[in-house]
Amino acid sequence: MSETIHSQIRTFVVDNFLFGDHSAPLADDQSLIENDVMDSTGVLELVSFIEERFGIAMADADIVPANLDSVARIVSFIERKREPVN
Amino acid sequence: MRVETFLRQSAAADPDRIAITAGDTCLSYGALDSASDRLAAALIAHGAKRGDRIAVLMENVPEAAVSIFAVLKAGAIFCPVNPQLRADGIAFILRDARPVAILTQAKFLRACEEAAAGLDTPPLLIATRALAALPQGVLAFDTAMSEAEHKLLPDPGDDEDLAMVLYTSGSTGRPKGVMMTHRAMDAVSASIALYLRNSADDVVLCALPLAFTYGLYQLLVCVRTGARLVLERNFAFPQAVLDKARAEGVTGLPLVPTIAAMLLSMKDLGPQALPALRYLTNAAAPLPPAHVDGLQNLFPQAQLYCMYGLTECARAAYLEPEELERRQGSVGKAIPGTEAVVVDPQGREAAPGIVGELVVRGPHLMLGYWENPEATEAVLRPDPQTGLPQLHTGDLFRTDADGFLYFVGRKDDMLKVRGEKVAPREVEAALCTCPGVVEAVVWGEPDPVQGTLLRAAVVACDPALAERDLLRHCARILPDYMVPRTIGFREELPKTASGKIARRLLVETDAPPLAPAIGPAAKTGD
Hints:
Strand content of chain A: under 5%
Number of helices of chain A: 4
Oligomer: heterodimer
CATH architecture of chain A: Orthogonal Bundle
Number of strands of chain A: 0
CATH topology of chain A: Non-ribosomal Peptide Synthetase Peptidyl Carrier Protein, Chain A
CATH superfamily of chain A: ACP-like
Shape of chain A: globular
Distance between the termini of chain A: 21 Å
Largest sheet of chain B: 10 strands, mixed
CATH class of chain A: Mainly Alpha
Largest sheet of chain A: none
Helix content of chain B: 25-40%
Radius of gyration of chain B: 23 Å
Distance between the termini of chain B: 48 Å
Strand content of chain B: 25-35%
Helix content of chain A: 40-55%
């Protein structure tokens, strides 16, 4: 897992969804939706953030729980998207 | 007809027909009927009596439907509680409605226990979806159902009994419990089913919370007509919801403007996204005209119903889809079997084009607010013609020459955020409980996705206090949609001559935002 992507995503989630509360327990594999960390409008904010910060154009089919519903899933999605296509 | 009779009749007509699908779970009418019988028996065995209140604090899970019908079969009154509420919000309802039990999910137990702390007789907690052993004293949903002997359910009561007490935000900042009889819920669900032409062939996808009227009536109308309800927890992942909707052959899709905006912001959605879709509905807040056009382009074969409702009567008006082109922005006329008229301050029917308050008459009105006669008298007043109660909605409307209704605005300061009612005073009160805050003001700013963005400003006596501290404080005690987007700091707040904080003055003078939102703001609507 890329450390820089990981820390950027974690910072985004903590800043935006937990209002900077770094003491809140948030495991990397924890579901953001199920644990009420992120809601519908939170997903929209997250998508904008990924598009702007990482220069990734997200298709509708990318915006699914498998890609976005935990810190670890978001990081691995960004890593996959940034790999050069062979 | 009592509300649980909807289920009895649909289960008797076709017990194998699917009532609810949610994720991988599928519940037939027969299964929903027998599960709610068993839970009703368990509630009675644990002391629930006719007229007792029982809270149902759940997300959109099938157990919520089982719980609602079980409470009614036990002769008790269900009290839907928004699962987004924090302990403080739950505590208010526990103190006000004094439920004898709370049916909930294990993940909300901590909030329930915190909310019940200090009560003389704390409600019995019955929890489902536990990932680990339940705490001492908490009854497991499945255990309760499996132990119960359900052959001898007593007569639950009659149509005039209360079926539900549903809390809604009040402009004073104090939530009010809307009391609904079985008769009123029967009347309004029959009316809705009639104008939407619902039948057992319908498959309705509900991503709206069951804890609010608009979502709840998706369940009730489906059960009444023998239709299938596809429950989704939320609309966070639109593509996943639409894939599910397509797979289930969804014919009805209820929306609020925020969900419509999310649908329309999807990039790859083609016109055949939902081939079986027969109708869309919108309520909670008006759809912007561009979204009306967008939805019609996206779902050309479906009819779009623009509707208007409020918790106090569930639904008041709807526009026949054929009128959509000619009556842009209208919510139509009163739903079948009821009346909705615009009146002037003297209570006389206003002429077309004249703005007045909408009053609603009919069998679907609430009985009043739970143990709050002053608030009841303020909104349920006798119709001068008939002497029967009529509901003063607090919403300003005008009509066109043909009597079609157009929403103009609110008489008070109530706002709609993502379709949810928000009282600025409730948010201000929450801000003022933060140490270091002297006074606070909250107002709304139009937003293409959320409808309204909440802004706040405070006067603080603690110079170390930062915006983030205040946001965190709010998030701890308020549901997400009530947490302001930004909170600015001021030396003082503008006041009226009488010393009240002038919210309107702030809205008008505060064109540039007070402070940038933390992190990049969502700009999905443009």
